[in-house]
Amino acid sequence: MSIRVGIVGISGFGGGEAMRLVAGHPSFELVYAAGEGSAGSRLVDRFPGVPARLADLVIEKWDPAALPRLDVLFASLPTGASAEALARVPQDVKIVDIGGDHRYVDGWTYGLADVWPDEIKGRSRIANPGCFPAAVLTALAPLLADGLIEPGNIVIDAKTGISGAGRGGADSRFGYAESNENLVPYGLLKHTHMPEMASTIGRLSGGSAAGLVFTPHLVPMTRGVLATIYGRGRATTDQCLEAARRFYDGRAFVRVTDRPPQTKWATGSNLAFVSYAADPERNLVIAMGVVDNLGKGAAGQAVQNANLICGLPETAGLDGAPVWP
Amino acid sequence: MSIRVGIVGISGFGGGEAMRLVAGHPSFELVYAAGEGSAGSRLVDRFPGVPARLADLVIEKWDPAALPRLDVLFASLPTGASAEALARVPQDVKIVDIGGDHRYVDGWTYGLADVWPDEIKGRSRIANPGCFPAAVLTALAPLLADGLIEPGNIVIDAKTGISGAGRGGADSRFGYAESNENLVPYGLLKHTHMPEMASTIGRLSGGSAAGLVFTPHLVPMTRGVLATIYGRGRATTDQCLEAARRFYDGRAFVRVTDRPPQTKWATGSNLAFVSYAADPERNLVIAMGVVDNLGKGAAGQAVQNANLICGLPETAGLDGAPVWP
Amino acid sequence: MSIRVGIVGISGFGGGEAMRLVAGHPSFELVYAAGEGSAGSRLVDRFPGVPARLADLVIEKWDPAALPRLDVLFASLPTGASAEALARVPQDVKIVDIGGDHRYVDGWTYGLADVWPDEIKGRSRIANPGCFPAAVLTALAPLLADGLIEPGNIVIDAKTGISGAGRGGADSRFGYAESNENLVPYGLLKHTHMPEMASTIGRLSGGSAAGLVFTPHLVPMTRGVLATIYGRGRATTDQCLEAARRFYDGRAFVRVTDRPPQTKWATGSNLAFVSYAADPERNLVIAMGVVDNLGKGAAGQAVQNANLICGLPETAGLDGAPVWP
Amino acid sequence: MSIRVGIVGISGFGGGEAMRLVAGHPSFELVYAAGEGSAGSRLVDRFPGVPARLADLVIEKWDPAALPRLDVLFASLPTGASAEALARVPQDVKIVDIGGDHRYVDGWTYGLADVWPDEIKGRSRIANPGCFPAAVLTALAPLLADGLIEPGNIVIDAKTGISGAGRGGADSRFGYAESNENLVPYGLLKHTHMPEMASTIGRLSGGSAAGLVFTPHLVPMTRGVLATIYGRGRATTDQCLEAARRFYDGRAFVRVTDRPPQTKWATGSNLAFVSYAADPERNLVIAMGVVDNLGKGAAGQAVQNANLICGLPETAGLDGAPVWP
């Protein structure tokens, strides 16, 4: 029997990727789509390549009081836009919030699915990790769990493709002409994503992430996140790799690689790639994490979380290999 | 029971896409991979995101005399490299040649799968259309079949992403620094792809394509082909659209759109998009065709052809929605 | 003695390029800059790399009644925005309108500077050609002048980088994520740029351009225009090249090349490249024209026009070689 | 009287940019060009937009024993290729080596022109800094000089456009299809560029750069280097900015900005942009440096060095504003 799925924010980038994944999912049936600017359009008007059986689904104006019968709702709304509305969704509808409003909020489970899958099973309110935290925390988790990196002294140099700014973020700064051939650091010493990362680092290590430094950069590409993370520790490269292989043993979506991972390895998939380079004599550990910001960094992990809360195989609908080149 | 599949030329772009599609196919099992430079590597060394069950498959040196038991072989070799070797493949192995050596060659069926599916069923030697012809012919077929465009007076202005030049084509002209921010017309009045297109136009129309003009351009993007085609005819835009909707009625992979199609609509899929704009007073018909050069233009159509010759549903393994953005 | 220059619309792409060229011009002194959103900023706030002597120039709100003493005013405003305001600029201020409002308007001279320089000298109101017409007409002029192509039967397949959509055009369609890896035909059988091209073709040929077909495409690159033009004629390739070499003999900015021109050849310069391929047996002439849409297609040609109307050497401030790669 | 200039390695990216700058230089005359693959071609065959007066200059096979009379020679050869050959250039020919063979080599002056211009004046053998060091050292110099950052504890996360890999580096990894939409860390804990940076940090600080960490990344863009540098110090952001403003007071090419610098700010120019963000409570200083890897990172700084050794104004031929967008 198929699971009835809705997507809110479907004409954004995260919502669009959720649509693609739900459309290819063996157990999900998309029965509800809502958007803001796109309300009233058919799905095929927004996504000309949508499977034919979904082409004529009409995008609704988002109204939590007017939902059809749903089993799962994916919400992909701008930060600040989902908290109040999602509170009005009936309790028997399971929600995965791809947006940022419910991370580390009471009553919601933080859906870092490759690290804590058992905590997610059976829940009905999941806050999906942000795209930067997805890359960062997947790379750090094994080191923190084994005490191979000091939690209080971590520098994260993070890079994202421009879809990470969202589709609404279409001021001329994100226009092609100004973004192409441009690399832009931003938000230095600011705190977006920081509480989420610091809290999770604390949980993983049992220590404090007080010294966390996080510098994001916009890279002229559509998709992809790479975090290059510098920390203190006395482990060797091999010990770090070994710790990660052990930590993710049997997990489907995290690949531990000898080589530094490249963003294109993950494009279009729910995979995360992690690697390490360490120099114990210099008390240095470098961790690297790569995800597709719309895959593991948004809709891919959301579907993984939905699989877990629905009791489905974790990989259902997520086993496509990355698109290359 | 799964169908045993091999891929030759797996480390090229077409072969890599064939690998991705075969890996996600419900009835295909990849049991043989061969390459030139990559022989001796494991699949995961070349494709870090390959599904885990295929990771350790070792890429062989291509040798038609040393094949394992295979049901289907996909060949994606440079033009000129496949004719002799494929002749030595046992007759009971079905072959889809993605390369150019067997198009309109005796004993091989031209695999324009959306137009002539019934001719392909049951055959064992299929020559896959080139990426430009895939876009051009899919757009032109309905007009030619209905006599809405003169076959002898067609101008094709074609544009391709740079993966169309192949992975071997990595001289500095195709390097990022020189290709980025550059748009390059080439091969003016030359004849690559011309006999294939002229022959097919002839078959579709019953007339001669003697006046065919074809100008390809390299566009700074990885994937995608758009053909903008100018011809003579007295039909209206609506008549052209209607002819195409009728021609492709019930066909899974061709979408007829009111709007001019964009290459990104097809990325990562086996879809083709066609549209038309006509001005009967000026005796003018413009046809547009869009494909992903590695999808419908190569590996996607190859899998579609393999489905047809194996008696599988035509859409098996090909129903993924395009990747956007 | 330096010539006092103003630029209106300075924070757009055309205005920004005009600023760059004026800043490097041996006889021009930028004394006035006006913008809409940027009013009140200093030039360095908008252009961090502006020469130090101009850094503190404050961008004014555009008001034709409050101009300082100026010799030349460059206007780079969206279509429809300049007609009324420029009418209120004092007569003794020479104007080059980079925007579209004054092309083929009474009292304004059409500034196709490489073709009709003598008509421009001494005038005070110049309408700069559009970026597509700059590429198209530069390529066609020699053929039309010598009767080597029929004026009434011309098909123009034109491609532009995305800065051609303007900086104001920053809706999500022009955002990086949606524009990258996308090739977009638009405006089929519509008439923007058509009257300008048809009128000029008529002037150049003495005939009618009634059958003109023009299809623009957005290409994922920032700068560059290529027009691939298909026409009827009985000349050979060599005769076309020879006609162009004769036509542009002694002219500084038009390069006639044997090879098909690439957009990157012109980046950052005021150059135009033209080439031809013809097949007299098929009554076929292909003409190609390349410009930088912000150079010869906008600000470069504007400065060239300003040089002509000010009695300066035509190449003053315009002799920089293109930026490569 | 003009200064007679030669360029070796002219068909590479650094050599090509040197050609562009020399062609626009008021005192330099290009009289000799040498290349490897391009020997025998005219300059216009390689650079279709070269100024007409240089079009017919024939590219020679590089032979230090067969030079014409030269005042200055720019050498832009792959690492390892210049040491021996440049030793055979007559002593009265001044040399600026853009390549890496003579950095911190006896008899050669390290040409960090914005920092130590007086050491360069009057010399005849200049080793141009590498592109990464140009960005890194320009950002760090003021902090090191004032003791605002610990020299022994510096982490450099560096990003470069793909032209930084050189034109010879055209294997498929640098091909458009594989580089586009890809972000690639490489050379972790390796030592290219490290001795150059460590030595200079030592000179600037009087201390040891023993703990230096340097991680380069390839970014999908043609030009541009950004270094994001993490260090230890107790200064505030304002103190860092103030130190840099003082350090570079009166210097033409270094811009100290409040905002984090973007690579596009420098494109096509010899400018460097530096900025800082510091948190004294966390003992944290972040320094950022941006250059065009072919400008200040190669040919721009080379021309600046040549100006200094020839007794010309430092900015001669280098005052063009950056190309935007």
TrEMBL record, chains A, B, C, D:
GO molecular function: N-acetyl-gamma-glutamyl-phosphate reductase activity
Subcellular location: Cytoplasm
Domain Semialdehyde dehydrogenase NAD-binding: 4-123
Pathway: Amino-acid biosynthesis; L-arginine biosynthesis; N(2)-acetyl-L-ornithine from L-glutamate: step 3/4
UniProt enzyme class: oxidoreductase
Keyword NAD carried by entry: no
Subcellular location, principal: cytoplasm
Family listed: Belongs to the NAGSA dehydrogenase family. Type 1 subfamily.
Protein name from the UniProt record: N-acetyl-gamma-glutamyl-phosphate reductase
Source species: Reyranella humidisoli
Source lineage: Bacteria, Pseudomonadati, Pseudomonadota, Alphaproteobacteria, Hyphomicrobiales
